[in-house]
Amino acid sequence: MRLKIGFIGVGGIASLHIQSLLRIDGTEIVSVYDVNKENAVKAAESTGAQVMDSAEQVLDPARIDAVYICTPQFARGNLEELAALRGIHLFVEKPLGLDMEEVRRKEQVILESGIIHSVGYCLRYLDTVQQAKAYLTGRQAHLIQAYRFGGSHPAEWWHRLDMSGGHLVDAVTHQIDMIRYVAGEFNEVEAKLGRVSFDSLQSKGSIYDAGSIAFSMEQGTVGSITESCLSPFHTASDLKLFGHDFFVYLSQNGAVLAIIDGGQNETITSAMDPYFEQCKAFVEAVTHHTQAPILSSYADGARTLAVTLAANRSSLERTAIHF
């Protein structure tokens, strides 16, 4: 029996999922929809899928078993809820939205429906991240340092804070999720976000060009996250965890792991494709109807989103936000 899959949104990130699914036996992409008809047609040509006239038309339980929702965070509407209520298993890209109350409502509907659900925090599936998580079990860092520097998304919507949430919500979310995954839950965040360069370079945008976030965690660890989406000459996506008797360093978005302690000094580079591993886990979970292979549930995605939205709020209100 083939697993029949639909896609809502077939832009850049969706293409990575499509390429991965085409490598997995027993899957068939049968329906696609995108507001950009040209994108939808290209995806259909590469997969043999049918181009549908609307997102809701994709969500036909007689036609598909599972759906990938890869629309931007401002353009989800009630798609997740519709999928859940129709018994369609759900993969949804991060970030989950821009309104925590709305996301929590969707979370409840998804959990009550019993469908398999996964959120696109693909870095969790890297063997290096898994090894870091295993090593840190039973160990506590006293300091965590993370950063992400790079360029901006070209889309106009991405440069609007009310549509993307900014670089922190849209991209740095991966580093925040990795911190949560390997080291535990956040307790408090306090952020300073600025627009020094963007103010002079673009008049229509409203996102921040840089941010500095201080935080504490439930077990007492403190740390910082530094980020910029206007860094053309230096890029980095790293996470460092300092313990009194160890140092763990995840660099290149988790693809390279270094562990140093009294008995080892080892660097490991992953050869895995996290998008493929993530898709493989989702297919396995749906096929066997179990959440077990999924490393990021909707509830997990919501908790990561809460941290990023709290940081945005902290900067606006000039105060620390507790969880």
Automatic annotation (TrEMBL):
It comes from the Bacteria. InterPro entries: Gfo/Idh/MocA-like_OxRdtase_N, Gfo/Idh/MocA_Oxidoreductase, GFO_IDH_MocA-like_dom, NAD(P)-bd_dom_sf. Residues 3-121 form the Gfo/Idh/MocA-like oxidoreductase N-terminal domain. One of its GO terms (molecular function) is nucleotide binding. Residues 149-243 form the GFO/IDH/MocA-like oxidoreductase domain. Pfam families: GFO_IDH_MocA, GFO_IDH_MocA_C3. This is Gfo/Idh/MocA family oxidoreductase. It comes from Paenibacillus contaminans.
